[in-house]
Amino acid sequence: xxxxxxxxxxxxxxxxxxxxxxxxxxxxxxxxxxxxxxxxxxxxxxxxxxxxxxxxxxxxxxxxxxxxxxxxxxxxxxxxxxxxxxxxxxxxxxxxxxxxxxxxxxxxxxxxxxxxxxxxxxxxxxxxxxxxxxxxxxxxxxxxxxxxxxxxxxxxxxxxxxxxxxxxxxxxxxxxxxxxxxxxxxxxxxxxxxxxxxxxxxxxxxxxxxxxxxxxxxxxxxxxxxxxxxxxxxxxxxxxxxxxxxxxxxxxxxxxxxxxxxxxxxxxxxxxxx
Length: 274
Prior knowledge:
- It is a single chain.
- This protein is of the alpha+beta class.
- The protein has one domain (12-268): Thiol Ester Dehydrase, Chain A (Roll), CATH 3.10.129.10.
- It contains five helices and ten strands, in the order βαααβββββααββββ.
- α2 runs antiparallel to α5.
- The longest helix has 16 residues, at 44-59.
- The N and C termini lie far apart (39 Å).
């Protein structure tokens, strides 16, 4: 599409869904109601996946290969809600860099997520090496608290098999994104889902809420492969009774970096969080 400041992005609509196989109890209706929510929450990483559609629709495969995005989730999304995603071009520089702003709204028009995406003419920095993210060997499912968490703590890596069948299940059944690019390329939401997995594997956390995700794409995988996610704890903090963890992650295939992720989640939910 032609890019000029103020140009609208094509609107995309999605119906929010919950993964019935997930171990995150905040997606369970009864559990979520204990914290004041009216039902189980759809994952924030799924909202990222829905919102990424307008970036791919406007910037194409180039965004999957070298683009970046930052999404923040500001209101609960419930299963079955129709989510409307739109946005506009916010800047176009002389060297060809493009920036867009986007947002997601629910059935009532309330904004649930806000974000931005960028597409530079070339990668803004070298891709990380796998040696930049050493593999931790700490005990899995260990206790998590603000006292026990240490910034710089290295996470035990996780592996996932990327197959076209697994990807088909994700795109066609989980988030219902039928964009033709995903017939040959992994969905950025599927890659981001590794952030939630590495949190749940390393720590004994029964319920968590995705808060924000910042990603930088470096390479677009075009074949089945084994995916390795590594990282470390970047930050921890408390706000209004909620306890937060920030992870600095990188996802690799054959030691080639696909994506870096700065992932923030609430691991201890305050009473009456809603």
